[in-house]
């Protein structure tokens, strides 16, 4: 049996693939803190009687987030978090560009070369 989250119309179910052979693969790089959080989640699930490996937890999380995205669109948790992170990154880039511009020497368009 596969746990599922409701799809966009509430009738379809987005299901995690569960315990089966997976033929597709992606590589995801995590920080040490994110990996530790994932391991803590695995251990918490084990305490709750819901044993799962890290891959299963990731597949379930993806299924839940994508179902929420299907159902709620731009109001979904995933869309809101990514939009917020993008705004913060844009603000950081703007701030860095302004600091870079301020550190450049003034334009010397009136200087003449000696030749």
Tell me what you see in this structure.
The protein is mostly helical and 115 residues long. The protein has one domain. It is built from three helices and two strands, in the order E-E-H-H-H. It has a two-stranded antiparallel sheet. The N terminus is likely disordered.
Q: Quickly count the domains.
A: 1
Q: Calculate the terminal CA-CA distance, rounded to whole Å.
A: 84 Å
Q: In what order do the strands lie side by side in the largest sheet?
A: 1-2
Q: Tell the overall outline.
A: elongated
Which regions have little confidence, pLDDT < 50, spanning 5+ residues?
1-5
Oligomeric state as shown: single chain
Mean pLDDT: 84
Sheet with most strands: 2 strands, antiparallel
Order of helix and strand elements from N to C terminus:
EEHHH
The proportion of strand residues reads 5-15%
Number of helices: 3
Helix content: 40-55%
How many strand segments?
2
The SS-based structural class is: mainly alpha
Rg, nearest Å: 24 Å
Kindly list the characteristics that best describe this protein:
two-stranded antiparallel ribbon, mainly alpha, 54% helix, 115 residues
Task: Give the SSE layout.
Elements: E1 4-6, E2 13-15, H1 32-47, H2 54-72, H3 77-103
Antiparallel strand pairs: 1-2
């Amino acid at each position: 049996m596969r746990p599922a989250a409701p799809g966009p119309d509430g009738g379809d179910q987005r299901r995690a693939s569960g315990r089966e052979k997976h033929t597709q693969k992606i590589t995801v790089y995590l920080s040490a803190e994110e990996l530790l959080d994932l391991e803590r989640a695995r251990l918490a699930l084990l305490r709750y009687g819901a044993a799962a490996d890290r891959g299963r937890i990731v597949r379930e999380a993806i299924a839940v987030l994508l179902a929420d995205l299907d159902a709620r669109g731009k109001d979904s948790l995933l869309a809101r978090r990514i939009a917020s992170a993008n705004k913060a990154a844009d603000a950081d880039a703007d701030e860095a560009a302004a600091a870079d511009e301020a550190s450049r020497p003034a334009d010397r368009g009136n200087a003449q070369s000696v030749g």
